[in-house]
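Last lecture ended with a question: if I hand you only a sequence, what can you say about the shape of the protein? Today we answer it with a concrete record. The protein is Selenoprotein O. Below, first the input exactly as provided, then the predicted structure, then a couple of comments.
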Amino acid sequence: IKYYFSLFSILIVRAAFTGEQDFCESNECNGDFKRKNTFYSNVKHEGEIPLALSHTLLDVLPLDEVDGNFIRVVKRCVFSECQPTPLKAPLTLAAVSLDVLCNVLDVNESVIQNEEFLQCVSGGKLFAGSVPLSHRYGGHQFGYWAGQLGDGRAHLLGEYTNGKGERWELQLKGSGKTPYSRSGDGRAVIRSSVREFLCSEAMHFLGIPTSRALSLVVSEEPVWRDQFYDGNVIQERGAVVLRLAKSWFRIGSLEILTKAGEFDVLRTLLDFVIKEHCRSIATNDPDKYVAFFFREVNETAHLISQWMSVGFAHGVCNTDNFSLLSVTIDYGPFAFMESYDPNFVPNTSDDEGRYNIGYQANVGLFNLQKLLEALQPLLTPDQLSQSQQILKEYPQIYQQRFHELFKAKLGLLGHEAEDSYLIAFFLKLMEDSRADFTMTLRQLSEVSLSQLENGSVPQSMWALSLLSSHEYFAHWVQLYSARLSRQHGDSDEARQHRMQRVNPRYVLRNWMAESAIRKAEKDDFSEVALLQQILMKPFVEQEAAERAGYSSKAPLWAQHLRVSCSS
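The predicted structure:
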């Protein structure tokens, strides 16, 4: 049992598309909901967009002295200036996050009808004040140093500080070649762009630190991809996502400077990150880099434990995909697992299973080790020793945070010595029975304690019903019931309400995303819109979501669905 708890495993996403039928048969996915969302493509008006960007980055950080988008080895800078390559018309504004538009960027939703908006969010024109940049970084990919990587198809447009004082960096993804494109074409396709748009917003409303997505624009521009690296190259269509983050710097941003021996640039970048994003660290503190590393260790442990609490497998936890602000970025072959499996690998490109879900916390430790190596030139021997000691505390920080999250998911109050055993026992039951992670916990929050104790779990609670068939489930219920009985002043109704606030009913399962993608590739964005709406309230039961089957068992066609790094 303790072995399974130490793995902190979670769920299995089934992968493979085998059917061509319509996947969501409800009105929400077809007629009614589709008609409600056709306004995105009916852009009519023209005029300036009331959004002006700035670039404090350019005031502090060195810029590439070489101009142009041609591919090259870049040295002694943090950014290269390069222009986006507009997508070929006709363009369709397939989706917009009104929450980002109105509540982050302070722009009225009427701007959606503006032709200028469509051009700005697709790379055809620039927002006022924009100076497009591509970021130079490196990274360890699948455990090995990969050298210069960088923004191979992304352009940082600028920064916006909103009415709440929040500073956001706006970036286009899929907007054309940069000096860092290597052998790539600088484009992104519809399937990967739909996934990034939906999951960025879904994670935000789950309460997990993440980048955001403002818009999704699709085109008729042909893009060629070998999706599963098996020699089967097919024609797809180009798309662009405008995404936002407080910062797009990642561990690899520092690594490449240390590897190149550019320690002065390293210090400049790190000082900028601390000043702009780590306000609790005094800029004149002689131990500020140790304090920064302490923050990174804590926040990385917290972020990965949050991933695990919702069954999220990132898929490519390379150091170039790990944010220095410990937010989730770069949504590729991710998955929300379905059947519980500590060895679940969402990415078919991950042949060795390095990034399986049960290993994510260990990968976090590896990435922090690489971060410390990048910081080492700026540390005194004593500071390095302190930082190494901080790193040793990572497993305990992670375990404590995971423990707290899972206690809440089980509705436990206070602390008892056997809580870890109770959690581990539950996870082991789920693994043995291959119960659905999300719905088992959700249905546990909806079932009454008396139903559990009487062994009368309704068959409609399909995930919990499967778990209840385990030979040791009744014994676990006895332990669970006894633990709850010692929560004085608590009630079963209060337990249910607490648990329903932290156990989502809806997550972006791969089959749901795939269904939306297949329709989007046929210019039907109704299910993208439906999922976007549903996932804004993942903890609330919604009639439209129930009709669409989003809390039901995965359909048969989804049993062999696959995702890869190809995008």
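Comments.
1. The chain is about 40% helix and 10% strand.
2. The radius of gyration is 24 Å.
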